[in-house]
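Hey, can you fold this one?
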Amino acid sequence: MSSATLTAEKKQTVDAAVTWTRWIPLGVGALVMVLLFAVFPYQHWTFATRGSVLEGWWKLLTQMPDNGEWQYCLVVPLIAGWLVWRQADLLKKMPLHGSWLGVPVLLFGIFVYWAGYKVDTGYLGFAALQILLAGLILLLGGKEWMRALFIPWLFLAFAWPLFPLDNLLAARLKIPTAQIASGILNTVGIPCVREGSTLQSMADTAAGLQQGAKFTLDVSDSCSGMRSLYALIMTGVLYSMVALKRTGPRLLLAASTIPLAVIGNVVRLLMLAIASLVVGQEFAVGKQIHGKLVEASLVSGVMAGKDNQGREDFVKITGGRLVVENVTAENQIQGWIRKGTLADGRTFEAKVEQGKLSSSVLEDATLREVMFSRAEGEAPEAAMSVAVLSQAGLERPSYSESRQVESFFHLFAGFVVFGVALGGVFGLASLFERKHWNQMKKWGHQSGAGALPREGHAAASANDVMAKSGTALALGVAAMAICWVTPTAAQLAESSFRPGLPEMVGECPSTALTMTSKERALFDETVRLDRRMYLTPDERQVLVTVVLSGEVKKTLHQPERCLPDQGWIISNRQEVPLRLKDGRELHATVLSVFRDILKDDGTRVRMRALNLYWYQGSHGYSTPSYDVSSFVSYRDAILRNLNHRWGQASFFMKVSEEEVGALEDPLEELTAIQSLSSFAADTASEILNPES
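Sure. Predicted structure:
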């Protein structure tokens, strides 16, 4: 046999060995990732049964309409794969020389993976995927592979929808956006008034126009840049990786996406304001669609019925408050008339059994249990068992679940946000690349895409490859085994709330209310909800709701999310102490909210209200913050094996109802906050267990 033949055979043997030692670790790494994140049932997500991390990720992004703004996450793995493919030639030349430094990274990732499994949350599953992937690259490929794949690995983080960041970052962008837009409008001669994140045209007394008559714009979450912010950051990072060559400009370009999103939204607000002035607000913004009637002022009407002696009695109504409990599909309402006044000076209360609601008139309403009083403080007496109220005039209606129907122009202006920001990204990238940032070379170094493998690292031996591959596989199997033997049955601790709400709190009587149909659809059957409407001595109505989370998962929410859906605008947020009768002190959050309603006569009325709430866990733990309650829930479940059964106590009270632009009492809201806090403290003393 010739020497050439021997050399060729030896080369084939070496190539086969190299191929074998190269594909084994790559195959093991892929197998571990598939088993942990595509096969193993990890979390319930929002569904009945546990699913893998990637299954839940897919369902969250494709089967839940409310998450549409996060669907860009679906293309991130494809882009990350493309970034790896761009370095295919480089990776082919790099030997696999794994590092045992990957083991501690894998162990930390396994802990995060187990913690997410135990507390049934997908966010830790996303974090575990990133950490375990880095650990596998280090253990099986080595430092050079980690250096080459660092950018694609980092970019993969954009694939995970981080819903809690919506409120965390969106709230911080609203006020600056409104401030900048307000300053520009006033500077160019379009006078406007800003309250919180809302912009309104200034009142024009000469033209007889109220404040907000020309335009009223609120920087909602969808207008604050949040729905485009993460996509913009992802686009900026991707473009910087492809178009720029140095780390410094790349970091600057990625960071610039946040102010660019604010600038884009400022442009959007300016477009909406100018279009409202030129064409009209309904064309520029859209129109407000009200939900069901909740309350209204009763200003006139005639009530007819028989008194206790059977004689016909006709009385003229001059005022009162209609409280609506139910509105049928045929616009028939049921509810109560509170604090009604008559032309002869008497007051009355009555139950509205049915009545036809037409525009601002209540027609042919059947009243029962009509109670009259002649003087303030006098005990009411039954006067009519049944009466008919005809043609009662209503003013200042209050609706639930008001919503804004956006116009086409409003939707078009939304695309401007992304367009302006994206144009800024491209412009800055061109500026950075043209200058090459020679003066800032010290900021960064050549990226892995253009780097060559360092000399001195030969391919690892077969024994080394097998040892590290076996370690990776063993750790992956161990992670699944640990999760498999971890108890997952819901064993919630006792609630800190007593069952039910008291009929009386001090001198405040109440009326029991039930869960709405929308709440029944949202909550699982193990959720408990108690609700009552209390009347305070200063004649304010306070709606108290206590929601106790169910057994499946924590089902509480933030008022900051549901109030805007009902048409309320949050103007202020503060924390207040609640001092209970037994000496305990809780802390609650108070939201100052308002919404404007256009009456039939064209008058714009602003209703102001307060929403006080806190979250109560087991074993006496309480917090005014939803985010803190979530953190404590996960922390105690992992470290103390304590599964809190959280409850939320919410107190909603209207403060005032005045024409927009009218002079307001600056102390009225402060007094109302003190009154509501005092009532909440008295109620908490009644509804919390003594040991909590």
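The two ends are 90 Å apart (CA to CA). Let me know if you want another pass with a different chain boundary.
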